[in-house]
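User: I've been trying to design a sequence by hand for this structure and keep getting stuck. Would you show me what you'd pick, starting by listing the structure so we're on the same page?

Assistant: Good idea, let's start from the same input. This is the structure you sent:
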């Protein structure tokens, strides 16, 4: 296993790592039976794709606006006819997203040994709402997002922001993500990188690999 003894801080991606995007599936199913998991997955994937597209076009749209646009696309693609009221209800649920079940206990353990941060593309108020709803906000030193700089991951500038705001060299900050593109981007930048591989998904085959692969945050806490 990679030596993490120099690491003093952990920078977490939020959505898909701590915040459970797939957890929206059950709520969506109440309105559109049988389509919840597919809608939740496509909705989040479309948010990510819109970030990549806007980044390549040198445009910027905040995450909360991307979330609404991605919902509209995903619903149309899956043939879901959502009323304005249902759309607003689901977006409000997304804005106070539940955390994965093990997150609270694992983060409490990790906070004893490391300074914890969020480093995300998300809108800060959305992440803070989700943290408070899950009872995990006290474990974090700060929520850092790329929104103020109007940049997206996996560009190097997004990870450089973490070094700047955390105030430590990159080899003292381990980056943690459940998303393959983010794992690759942070490894390319030079962070020690931990992939929370919850669903057995393949890694993007681009010649870069995480330093540590775990199935959830409990396994990560055990390893560190």
């Amino acid at each position: 296993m990679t030596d993490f003894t120099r690491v003093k801080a952990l920078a977490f991606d939020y959505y898909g790592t701590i915040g459970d995007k797939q957890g929206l599936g059950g709520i969506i199913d109440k309105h559109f039976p049988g389509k919840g998991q597919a809608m939740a997955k496509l909705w989040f994937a479309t948010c990510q794709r819109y970030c990549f597209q806007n980044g390549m076009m040198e445009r910027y749209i905040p995450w909360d606006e991307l979330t609404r646009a991605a919902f509209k696309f995903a619903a149309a693609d899956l043939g879901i006819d959502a009323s304005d009221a249902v759309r607003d209800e689901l977006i409000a649920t997304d804005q106070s997203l539940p955390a994965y079940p093990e997150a609270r206990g694992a983060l409490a353990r990790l906070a004893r040994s490391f300074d914890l941060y969020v480093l995300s593309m998300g809108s800060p108020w959305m992440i803070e709402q989700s943290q408070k709803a899950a009872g995990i906000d006290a474990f974090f030193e700060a929520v850092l997002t790329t929104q103020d700089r109007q940049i997206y991951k996996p560009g190097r500038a997004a990870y450089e922001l973490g070094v700047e705001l955390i105030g430590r060299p990159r080899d003292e900050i381990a980056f943690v993500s459940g998303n393959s593109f983010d794992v690759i981007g942070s490894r390319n930048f030079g962070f020690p990188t931990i992939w929370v591989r919850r669903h057995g998904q393949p890694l993007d085959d681009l010649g870069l690999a995480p330093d540590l692969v775990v199935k959830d945050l409990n396994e990560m806490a055990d390893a560190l």
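That's my pick for every position. To get oriented when you compare it with your attempt: The chain has a mean pLDDT of 93. The chain has two domains: 9-19+98-223, 21-94.
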